[in-house]
């Protein structure tokens, strides 16, 4: 006799093991999205008109990864750091922050690249609202690549710097990240409303 409880708990254990790896979880999400694509959009697959919407989807996934991490820095890591006991600070500085910054930087690159593809695909509603959003998004991307990352590298000790240079770099990176936090709100307002508003 098959013990249903045991079979179910073995299955759950297998699923849990699979989900322990974040890339597996990502692949599972992608797989479910692919099933939805096959169920609802099979007819679009052959046609080139699905290209734009598909890249809009990739654009939004990379965009939320980028902006999600920006919100993590501004709402969680930066305000909490002063409260972390000195002996625990390296845990954040050496392990969590470099990993978060890695995803933050490359999600930004993916957002800009997929945004450019959507724009070139002809699927976008190009109006003043979208152009304003793109200008704000590119300004934020510039800040990440040319100000936040080089200064964070010094602040975290990934490149050598004197102590007071480290302090200045950490402050500049923090303030630029705060500026991006501010700009993200009008940028997202423009991105989301651009395809929905008539005219401008
Ligand atoms: C930085 C440079 C960026 C460029 C060049 C760019 C470009 C674009 C383009 C061309 C569209 C299509 C608009 C349309 O369908 O009419 C779009 C839509 C959108 N973008 Fe961006 N974008 C950028 C940044 C971001 C960021 C950081 C996010 C964050 C999540 C974001 C989220 C969105 C969303 C939610 C939409 C609306 C999708 C829809 O409703 O169809 N974008 N973007």
Word description of this protein:
By secondary structure, the protein is mainly alpha-helical. It has two domains: 46 residues, no CATH class; 145 residues, no CATH class. 20% of the residues are buried. The site of protoporphyrin IX containing FE has 26 residues, from α3, α4, α5 and α6.
Described by its quaternary structure, the protein is: single chain
The best one-word shape is flat
Largest sheet: none
Number of helices: 6
Q: Write out the distinct hetero groups bound to the structure.
A: protoporphyrin IX containing FE
The number of distinct β-strands equals 0
Order of H and E elements: HHHHHH
The overall number of domains is 2
Low-confidence stretches: none
Terminal-residue CA separation: 68 Å
Structural class: mainly alpha
Q: Specify the helix fraction band.
A: over 70%
Fold blueprint:
Blueprint: H1 4-19, H2 22-46, H3 51-80, H4 89-121, H5 128-155, H6 163-193
Helix pairs in contact: 3-4, 3-6, 4-5, 5-6
The structure holds protoporphyrin IX containing FE.
Supply the key terms.
flat; 2 domains; mainly alpha; 0% strand; binds protoporphyrin IX containing FE; 200 residues
Question: What is shown here, in short?
Answer:
The chain has 200 residues and is an all-alpha fold.
């Amino acid at each position: 006799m098959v013990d249903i409880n045991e079979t179910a708990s073995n299955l759950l254990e297998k699923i849990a093991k699979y989900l322990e790896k974040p890339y597996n979880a990502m692949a599972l999400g992608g797989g479910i999205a692919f099933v939805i694509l096959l169920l609802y959009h099979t007819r679009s697959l052959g046609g080139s008109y699905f290209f734009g919407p598909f890249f809009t989807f990739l654009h939004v996934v990379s965009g939320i990864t980028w902006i999600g991490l920006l919100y993590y820095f501004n709402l969680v890591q930066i305000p909490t750091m002063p409260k972390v006991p000195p002996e625990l600070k390296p845990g954040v500085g050496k392990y969590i922050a470099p990993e978060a910054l890695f995803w933050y930087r490359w999600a930004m690159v993916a957002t800009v690249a997929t945004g450019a593809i959507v724009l070139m695909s002809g699927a976008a509603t190009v109006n003043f609202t979208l152009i304003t959003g793109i200008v704000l998004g590119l300004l934020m991307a510039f800040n990440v690549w040319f100000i936040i990352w080089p200064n964070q590298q010094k602040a975290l000790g990934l490149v050598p710097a004197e102590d007071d240079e480290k302090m200045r770099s950490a402050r500049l990176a923090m303030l630029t990240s705060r500026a991006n936090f501010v700009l993200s709100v009008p940028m997202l307002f423009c991105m989301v409303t651009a395809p929905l508003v008539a005219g401008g």
